[in-house]
Amino acid sequence: MGSLKNNKKPDKKSGGVGEEREMAESICRGAEEPWRVLEFYSGIGGMRYSLMKAGVNAQVVEAFDINDKANDVYQHNFGHRPYQGNIQSLTDADLDSYKAHVWLLSPPCQPYTRQGLQKHSADARAFSFLNILELITRMLKPPVMLFVENVVGFETSDTRAKMVEILAKSDFVTQEFILSPLQFGVPYSRPRYFCLAKRKPLSFQCQVFNNQLLWSPGRLFGNNENMVIGEYDQSQEDWDKLIESCQPIEKFLEFTSSRDLVDLETSSFATTDVSANGLETSEEFVEGDALDFSSVDQFVVPLSLIERWGSAMDIVYPDSKRCCCFTKSYYRYVKGTGSLLATVQPKKKGKASSLREQCLRYFTPREVANLHSFPKDFQFPKHISLRQRYAMLGNSLSAAVVAPLLQYLFAQPC
Ligand SMILES: C[S@@+](CC[C@H](N)C(=O)[O-])C[C@H]1O[C@@H](n2cnc3c(N)ncnc32)[C@H](O)[C@@H]1O
Predict the structure, then answer these.
(1) Fewer Cβ close by (within 10 Å): the C or N end of the chain?
(2) Among the listed residues 171, 177, 128, 174, the one whose alpha carbon sits nearest the alpha carbon of residue 150
(3) pTM, whole model, 2 decimals?
(4) Which of 149, 325, 395 to mutate to test the pocket of ligand 1 (most atoms within 8 A of CB)?
(5) What is the CA(66)–ligand 1 centre distance, in A?
């Protein structure tokens, strides 16, 4: 995988529709060569892990991210440092030089989140995404497949409308999904928006879903025995059944008992200061270098936080079949940022029993990675602090959802 910095930008050659069709047709014939993939907004590599999990014959030829810490993590795990720069500054010639067939993109989601200002395409963080999509219309060798991931809310944004317009203009057919790991047997609620796009003459296996937004994986993914596929509509009863069919949370834990938990009364964490909004202000939590991540002690929720924010906490148990989405603010705030684990199961679950006695702890970064269905060998380099780990994981994605979607994208109709 070469870096853009080292690549000489190619001269523009004459090309045209005929040449593009020829390229697409040669891809259709199923050459032995791997698909050449570009991973935009690569973060800690969730897309790349999903691609590996999907088992398709593909090679990431370059990844792009502006964040140096995320690039440290990516390099640590994949042995390649992504191109570190603003995606907005890429040109059509830069992108042509990679001769890539497939683009994977997970652009920033803040312009579309409910908590944000919802400025959509007017938000500066949306510019780079629309900018590179526009480049497709000017490229000599545009990609033939695209995969876009974002938050729920993106589907009603004007960015999505512009994306679909650009893709249609460039001869792409799209299929859109809103799916959660719960629909794939993982006890994790993280619904996300996905857009899959294929350039004609390529086509989807199930063309009946062209130009549609689907909320269920349904029969799309065939009879894969390793996947629990929910055939559910939106009723509460169906969701309850779906959740019941998920694996228990304990399968995703690295610390399974409360045995090692420190005595809350004597723990230094019990006296941690808490500001308004549940912001954890203790410096003891901030930097990773001095912390031993193999000990569960640092994940204990301080009593002061429980007393002040207990009513707003989402508490789950090892035998629970669902937990809430971990956001990038997990461990900094407790309200709405992800579930907390009760390590001592009371006779009566929930807030009817004393939270204090339930020994609440945060999920560890490894456990969040497990719930994202990352492989066991995924690791953070030592210098990445605990907060940074949670922040990067919160920005990442569920490989359990993305991998089957990628398999579906890459599959050619018979
Ligand atoms: C939603 S996260 C994607 C995370 C990624 N899919 C993963 O698995 O970790 C968005 C990423 O895009 C990066 N980013 C945002 N704007 C960028 C830009 N203009 N150029 C390059 N990278 C950018 C951020 O640093 C962040 O890592």
Answers:
(1) C
(2) 177
(3) 0.85
(4) 395
(5) 7
Whether 246 is catalytic is no
Mutate to test the pocket of ligand 1, among 38, 66, 78 (most ligand atoms within 8 A of CB): 66
CATH no., domain 4-231+398-410: 3.40.50.150
- pLDDT per residue as tens digits for the range 41-58: 999 999 999 999 999 999
ipTM of this complex > 0.95?
Answer: yes
Query: Which pair of structure tokens corresponds to residue 11?
Result: 């001269």
Residues of the chain with CATH 3.40.50.150: 4-231+398-410
Please enumerate in sequence order all residues whose Cβ is within 8 A of that of 191, keeping only pairs 6 or more positions apart, or say none: 152, 178, 179, 180
Ligand 1 proximal residues by C-beta, below 6 Å? 41-47, 64-67, 70, 86-88, 106, 108-109, 128, 395-397
Instruction: Compute φ and ψ for 179, nearest 5 degrees.
Output: -135, 155
Domain 255-363: which CATH number of 3.90.120, 3.30.1890, 3.30.870, 3.90.190: 3.90.120
Q: Do the strands 58-64 and 145-151 form a parallel or antiparallel pair, or are they unpaired?
A: unpaired
Residue-wise pLDDT for 181-214, tens only, equals 999 999 999 999 999 999 999 999 999 999 999 9
